[in-house]
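Structure ticket #2291
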Amino acid sequence: MKRISKIVVLGLLAAITLTGCFGGRMSSSGRGGEVVGVSGKRFTEPTPYGMTLIKRGYLKMGLEKDDSLWGRQTPTKEISVDGFWMDETEVTNSEYKQFVYWVRDSILRTRLADPAYGGDETYMITEDKNGDPVTPHLNWKKALPRKPNEDEQRAIESLYVTNPVTGEKMLDASQMNYRYEVYDYTAAALRRNRLDPSQRNLNTDVPVDPDAVVMISKDTAYIDDEGRIVRQTIDRPLSGPWDFLNTYIVNIYPDTTCWVNDFVNSDNETYMRLYFSSPTYNDYPVVGVTWEQANAFCAWRTDYLLKGLGGEARYIQRYRLPTEAEWEYAARGKEGTEFPWEEVDVKTEDGCFYANFKPDRGNYTEDGNLITSRVGLFSSNSNGLYDMAGNVAEWTSTTYTEGGIDAMNDLNPELKYNAAKEDPYSLKKKSVRGGSWKDPESYIRSAWRTWEYQNQPRCYIGFRCVRSLASTTSTKQKGRKK
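Resolution: structure written out below.
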């Protein structure tokens, strides 16, 4: 009886193994000089705070029906995307303020270490624990002064300006500049950019010119004597791997005036003065942020994370804006529906709307909101993402072209062009997705494509971040509780 039971159990195990989707061999260790591969500690990526896992999958991207609004046929394409982490909500005013305050405090620490403001060198780290010199960097463990002396007070006051009418002291937005660097791994990997000329073409019938000069474009930036940001894209002969390190300096303070500039002959002064500054709007999506500023936030968020991690930081992928394909794939949910919800209508049988948008001509309040709403106010889609339709439209990393989908690859598609300052303005269009609080029903469909110039802030455009997976497996999701 025991023998029969053992055979049955073994048979069941074999059946389970053979009937699964993946019937590959089990890993094993070898001895006696056999090649068995290199073992190592497996990295399990923890769930990033406030993010949800979007598993890899397939999507028919674009509008499958003719666009009834404009009466034209729009392209579609079958694509596949790898898995990634995505913010559950749009980046809020509170989260973006953390970025602004970090920049403010970094400038203040730099000035406190300056001899012109007292020269407290403890605000800078110039040596490691062994006393060896290192590249000078800020000492964030050094607390800012609670009772500043005269020099420290001058350093603090140098970051503020006085309103000539009200006499109110305000943070000097013009000084909130963030410098960051991005290494272009894709450009560095291209064969035409190899340092060794013999590796630029694998066709042995083509003679190698050892003196051939390869020109590359490199983005750089600096602050001039007038305190202005100067951006340049320089063309130079390829000389080494550092040629692919691009430098950016971005003023990161949101344009609070977008509320009055986007809506002329409209009384939106209250939003201009309070929307970003008042804690009342802390949990509302940040607006007035350009595509360039959103990228700067992603770079800062990456740097901020990596400094808080240990030795496994090298496996973590950087925060970035989603590609247009990733955004649509995530918005459609697990069912791939037209809207981020399953129904074809935009409201329930009880008359409750699924999103914050403009349901009727001129009636912004029909859905219960006038402008933006608190993030996460409406239900999430099946991927656990909130406000993928309405509230604010969202920047993507993708360069916008009319036939963009047709030009995309079908594997992790992306159209990318880093426009130089000298380029025509038409080349600086970036794809914007999701529709906003001011848009009608047609614009909040997951497949609807629109655009904005990369340096143009709007009171109806925000963003959220994504992060590529560091591995094909991850821990159980533990998203932020609402």
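Closing remark: The first helix runs from residue 2 to 19.
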